[in-house]
Design brief:
single chain; 252 residues; alpha/beta; Peroxisomal Thiolase, Chain A, domain 1; 6 helices; 13% strand; globular
Amino acid sequence: MRDVVIVEAVRSPIGRRGGGLSTIHSADLLATVLKELMDRSGVDPNEVGQVVGGCVSQVGMQAFNVARTAWLTAGLPVSAPATTVDSQCGSSQQATNMATTLIQAGVVDVAVACGVEDMSQVPMGSSLARGLDLGKAVPKSYFANYEFTSQFEAAERIADKWGISRTDTDELGVRSQALAKQAWDEGRFETQIVPIDAPDLDDEGKPTGTTHRVERDEGLRDTTMESLAALKPVARPDGVHTAGTSSQISDG
């Protein structure tokens, strides 16, 4: 089995719902990052044997193999095949696993792993096609084997198993925000961030012909133990997880 080396890694800033990245097409967003990735890496794009992209809501602007669409939108070689995978919240991690495995197995010499999600324009659950009679995503027979619950309840069960308290989760949330702010203040993200020029929209939601630049993560908040303590639990009345210690709706 061959060793695999990460040559370069870049990302867009992470935008908040309705924030700076909420006006750009998902394929354009990913294309900007892919183009910068290849430029920085020094790798000949013609040597890329496979692109693997992660995306949860593969509908609308994220349908039709968005990883392939973004690769071509970036002007990169048509010779590189691309695949978009859905492993829910672990989609981009799975894309990385698959790209790594292809190199390890000797199928390709160079692979690109990536991912995109514009939750402002393609909200969570969009792929369930509400209003269309396409059948339910989960059949009745599923419930003969397992229950169907939420990520929030799953998180509560993990907390139960490992004895994680509300104070523990709140402390982690405060620490996470503090470390993120410190990293930005110290310039630790500068080498990995690709600035994004997103279109400005008028009151009718149409492009004005101008753009605005997004260069920083938009999810940082002035979080304290006191502010988190005031939030209600999400899944259970006595639960340990709140909106303040859960991942936010993001674009990137």
